[in-house]
């Protein structure tokens, strides 16, 4: 047995009689003194947990468990959605050491941590609950669990979704309200919901960059000086080796010239026309449409 978590699980199973008739398990310090082809090391960490026994063994951080080329690691699990990257990281580290990996895709080695219907029925008989509130899982799982509970004769079954508040005292169990739920992002010093965090916009910025354009126009619709542009995260040259900055400047001038003088008095018209021209110019050469900010300053005619 490798690690405290695995030892605790075996101690509990032994105490309630699940392991009766089995010889005692050896501790991890016996690993190095036994023939490698006669050892199975049981350890936690199949979900890629960085501090679990498997991760430490894969990185060489366990002084008793040293893996070697030709060893096998069997993942009797499936990666929980969201854990794929960390699980694959451990698998890659093991493969690079010449270790053979066996998963449920290779053989029938998956051991589910979820009870089957007959196990739930047995649990209901032991516990004899008056109220059942299915939790943990997708809507389909919750619904099917509720149907099973009703079929088994549980008097009150409350089927809920995230955020529902359930009253379990003073009479019948029932939904009494709702509380805010959902993801929050820790963003620097702030804790924010996704739509208030700006993360999606920053993701777009990282993908396609940003162009800022400053234009000064008189009340009469005359453009004062050349517009100022700032390209961030945009390639310096196009596929022909020409300056992307020069291309953008040229398209801005063309766009401003194409706006009738009287319509240049409308800052929103100028802003929209210039932004569209910049996005089109860069998209045509790069294949990506950056975020474009156009700042229009109106100057009074003297």
Summed up:
With 302 residues, the chain is an alpha/beta fold. It contains nine helices and eleven strands.
Class derived from helix and strand content: alpha/beta
- N- and C-termini, Cα separation: 87 Å
Q: What's the main sheet like?
A: 3 strands, mixed
Sequence stretches where pLDDT stays below 50 over 5 or more residues = none
Helix content: 25-40%
Count of extended strands: 11
Rg, alpha carbons: 32 Å
**Spatial ordering of strands, largest sheet:** 10-9-11
Listing every helix as H and every strand as E from the N terminus to the C terminus, the arrangement reads HHEHEHEHEEEEEHHEEHHE
Tally the helices: 9
Overall 3D shape = elongated
> Quick check: average pLDDT?
92
Percent strand equals 15-25%
Walk me through what this model shows.
The chain is an alpha/beta fold. The chain contains 9 helices and 11 strands. It has helices spanning 4-15, 53-58, 84-96, 117-127, 139-151, 194-197, 199-208, 244-258, 267-286; strands spanning 72-74, 100-102, 131-132, 156-157, 164-167, 174-178, 185-187, 190-192, 210-218, 223-232, 291-299. α8 (244-258) runs antiparallel to α9 (267-286). The longest helix has 20 residues, at 267-286. It is elongated and about 100 Å long.
């Amino acid at each position: 047995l490798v690690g405290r978590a695995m030892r605790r699980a075996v101690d509990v199973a032994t105490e309630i009689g699940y392991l009766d008739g089995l010889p005692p398990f050896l501790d991890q310090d016996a690993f190095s003194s036994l023939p490698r082809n006669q050892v199975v090391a049981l350890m936690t960490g199949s979900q890629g947990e960085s501090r679990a026994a498997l991760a430490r063994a894969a990185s060489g951080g366990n002084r008793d468990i040293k893996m070697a080329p030709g060893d096998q690691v069997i993942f009797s699990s499936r990666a929980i959605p969201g854990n794929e990257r960390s699980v694959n990281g451990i698998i890659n580290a093991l493969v690079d050491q010449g270790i053979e990996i066996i998963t449920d895709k290779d053989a029938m080695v998956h051991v589910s941590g979820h009870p089957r219907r007959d196990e739930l029925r047995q649990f209901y008989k032991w516990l004899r609950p008056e109220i059942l509130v299915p939790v943990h899982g997708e809507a389909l799982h919750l619904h099917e669990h509720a149907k099973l509970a009703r079929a088994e004769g549980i008097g009150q079954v409350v089927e809920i979704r995230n955020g529902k508040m359930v009253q379990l005292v003073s009479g019948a169990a029932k939904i009494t309200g709702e509380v805010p739920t959902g993801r929050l992002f820790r963003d620097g010093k702030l804790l924010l919901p996704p739509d208030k965090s700006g993360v999606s916009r920053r993701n777009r910025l990282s993908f396609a960059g940003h162009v800022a354009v400053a234009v000064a126009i008189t009340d009469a619709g005359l453009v004062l000086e050349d517009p100022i542009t700032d390209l961030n995260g945009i390639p310096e040259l196009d596929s022909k080796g020409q300056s992307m900055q020069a291309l953008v400047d040229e398209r801005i001038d063309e766009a401003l010239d194409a706006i009738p003088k009287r319509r240049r008095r409308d800052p929103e018209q100028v802003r929209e026309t210039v932004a569209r021209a910049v996005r089109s110019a860069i998209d045509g050469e790069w294949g990506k449409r950056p975020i474009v900010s156009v700042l229009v300053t109106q100057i009074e005619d003297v």
